[in-house]
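Quick entry between incubations.
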Amino acid sequence: MSIPRITKVETTIIDLPTIRPHHLSMTVMMNQTIVLTRIYSDDGICGFGESTTIGGLSYGAESPEGMKLTIDQYIAPLLIGQDATNIHLLRKVINKNIQHNTFAKAGIETALLDAQGKRLNVSVSTLLGGAVNTKLSVLWTLASGDTQKDIEEAKQLIAENRHNTFKLKIGRNDPKIDVAHVSAIKKALGDDIKITVDINQAWDEYIAKKWVKVLQENGIDLIEQPIVKTNFEGLARLTQYFEVPIMADEACATISDAMKLCKIRGGSVFAVKIMKTGGLYDAYKIAGMTEACDIALYGGTMLEGTIGTVASAHVFSTATNMSWGTELFGPLLLTDDIVKKPLTYKNCALELPTGAGLGIELDDDKIEQYRRK
Ligand code: MUC
Ligand code: MG
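Done. Structure below.
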């Protein structure tokens, strides 16, 4: 049998509006920009991948326009003519030639895995060894910027049985205002509804110590990245000091970050995202590390569209320590999609598609409609 060779790498920037403004400590999102990568090979197979960040350059070090350029100019030439089936060898070549740029690399790795799954007629989770969970619990982020609107949104989603856990994005305002907002929502939704809080690095360690205490007293279930991502020891101190679990998000980006944080227990939960790790394989490795250290795993999102979300779901489905579930709701935050059949969200969970590769089909008309011209 001849070896399938890569013939073309194509990238497209897609702009999709959000259903409402999404407030984070560093930006307010009105739309989401997806870099779609399609990798073609001479056996007729095409794999899809997505590279997505939040708010241009306000969250991560790569912009959508920069990711496209990195892929077109630097990654694609390394792939053309290469064996499409040896993904580890391709990763090695890419990592040797290109430093950092994990978002761009994540889209490439996803497309290679999607293609290989299609080639072998197995799903991406099967390629990774098999799914332990085919239904992944999914929370929803309340981030309208208005306490009353957030409460109404949550009540509606609880009534629909779409979500029973909510994450609140804070850090834009004075901590006193933010903590009052969180406490009002917790009180309005009751004890059965879990509330997690993401500060996105907005507090210093002293402020965090002061206000996490109040959040803990108000029954908040999980505190995400309260302090700057570089203060690993601070995360370890907060983890040790508080009963409420502290989660590392921005701090826990790559496998070496995860290793350093494991060593000092810089969090009792780690948020893993394929955009931070540079793809599914390193996310899988972090899952192994946390399992070994008895640290819980949380399936994070960079608010990707369906391709990135389903890629993340395939890797998270293989993990055995996902005790905090996932936040893989990205497609639900968007007014439209570029796939033919949207993902199934039911009973507070995302159902893993069963088809070959990622298990999704692209809608070319929608790509044409939302493609940046
Ligand atoms: C983040 O930092 O967790 C994930 C969910 C959400 O609303 O924002 C993202 C980013
Ligand atoms: Mg976060």
